[in-house]
Amino acid sequence: MLSCKDVSRLLSLSMDQSLPLRKRVEIRLHIWFCKACPNIEKQLLFLRQAARKLDEEMLHSDRVELGAEARERIRKAVRQ
Ligand SMILES: [Zn+2]
Q: Residues in domain Putative zinc-finger (predicted)?
């Protein structure tokens, strides 16, 4: 059985890469029974969206010229 710590780690991992089906099922089951993890997932999804939006705004902005490296740094900061 996964611990809450495992689940939050796996959830944030799953934002960057797709996890094996078995792991995804384990996460789902845990979130189903856990009181805390649904909130963690919500927060991660929110941050994910915020990071994506920031990314798009930067891509479409001609005022801000940022290199890929700087953008990656900001994305990581937003994610934490
Ligand atoms: Zn949990």
A: 4-37
